[in-house]
Amino acid sequence: MSENPKQEDLEGLKHSPPQLASYQDVHADAVFGDITDDGPNYRSLGWFATAILMTKTMIGLGVMSIPAAFDVLGLVPGTLCLLAVATITIWSMFVVGTFKLNHPEVYAIDDVGYKFFGTPGRVFFGATFCICKCSLPLFISSEPEADTALDWIFVSGSGLLSISIALNAISMHGTCTSVFVAVAAIVTFCLASVRTLGRMSWVAWGGLISILSSILTLTIAVGVQDRPVSAPQTGPWKSDYELFKKPSFLEAVSAISTMIFAYAGTSAFFAIVAEMREPRHYARSLTICQSIVTATFLTIGVVVYCYCGSYVASPALGSAGALLKMVTYGLAIPGLLASTIILSHLSSKFVFVRLLQGSEHLTANTPRHWITWLSCTFGATIIAYIIASAIPSFNSLVSLVGALLGTLMSFQPMGGMWLYDNWGRKRDEKKLTWYLMVCWSIFVIILGTFLMISGTYGAVVEIIDGYKDSGGSAAWSCADNSNSV
């Protein structure tokens, strides 16, 4: 076992190239400080467990809305848009790993903002979410950097909403929807309070098997059933899917925002790689993750839309018949719960690290450690519960999160991160590849900003129209939310 590294060694590691940076057997971590046997081991994730954890973070929520996005765009544009979003976000995720290796002290997006512009950069990420900040008094202090956890909390809220939909489906609306959301929140709080990602790998394993089983069952079911459950049940029927559709601008950006939401786990990967035993294996884990994720998203989007057409439900698991709907939702519940638990854990861990960073209480089993940790997980769960209850429309919620927070966490910062690490290269190193990557990074920043503004506007209009619709669900409603289409 090697000795603890000196401070100057850690400082030198910040500027070392990705291929040389290594944390193996290091006990003084740049984020968590001294890791001892007297507390949780925050550096216990192997590369394969990391791949499973990443995959489960990505699959479980957004995938349920992809077929409905295809229904808005058409089969060909939907496929192309999905692949385009996949390409940009996969590149962004690779940039996250490289940036973390170059700057081990970075734990989350707000640290990136601080490196870009100092304190104003950190404040920018807080100011971006200042409208929502007033709803967080139980969860965080007035420190602006804590607001970057809001993205994960919103996604956790959509997870609670998905679980309530599943419980409504399998129980045939056995009780008030608000009760189901509350039950999901209680279970989430209990399991999200496990302190390290290494000990949560079993949650990711079980959740991934669950959600993939549900998706596979749904894909087979829509292919063999006579017609979708929401289609006319008498007379001849044929899927009315279209290769190309003509959506309005707001409809199109809302659908694309839904796809971005499906890939919006990018910012969470900072926290995941921070707990890896060997972050140099991040690219290996990411390759496995994205191969599974993109194949799954593309398959369910194309197959379910082709067989269901305009009668596809959102979430997609509602597209099967009454019996298969109950089966697929039953299979999916552990997977939906796992996603919510992991994301609630990550948002809680973010604030926890910020509150105790530099203190011995961060890695020691002290009363302050436990009180702070449980307060963070409880606060994150409460806010996610409020979000899930206040915006009960699945489509509207995922569009809003994808546009407002998904792009900001997956597009613009990553373009800036590549420029930050590569802009200052020597003249003789600036070859054609460098110029192409500069153009690409700037394009990602501009595209992300455009989609954030236009997509947020479209999602807000959709939510307002939903509340005006007499058939829409109200906040904290007891109505059955498992039959949305």
Task: List the keywords.
L-amino acid transmembrane transporter activity, transmembrane helix, single chain, transmembrane, mainly alpha, two-stranded antiparallel ribbon, 485 residues, Hydantoin permease, 1% strand, disordered N terminus
Write structural notes for this entry:
The chain has 485 residues and is an all-alpha fold. 65% of the residues lie in helices and 1% in strands. It has a single domain, classed as Orthogonal Bundle (Hydantoin permease). The protein has a two-stranded antiparallel ribbon. A hairpin with a 3-residue loop joins β1 (28-29) and β2. Mean pLDDT is 80; it is low at 1-26 and 126-148.
Stretches where pLDDT falls below 50 for ≥5 residues?
1-26, 126-148
CATH evolutionary superfamily: Hydantoin permease
What is the string of helix and strand elements? Answer: HEEHHHHHHHHHHHHHHHHH
The CATH first-level class comes to Mainly Alpha
**What number of structural domains do the residues give?**
1
What characterizes the major β-sheet? 2 strands, antiparallel
Looking at CATH, which topology would you report?
Answer: Hydantoin permease
CATH architecture descriptor: Orthogonal Bundle
> What's the total helix number?
18
Task: Give the CA-based shape.
Answer: globular
The fraction of residues in strands falls at: under 5%
**Overall pLDDT metric:** 80
Lateral strand order in the biggest sheet:
1-2
Q: State the helicity in percent bands.
A: 55-70%
Total beta-strand segments: 2
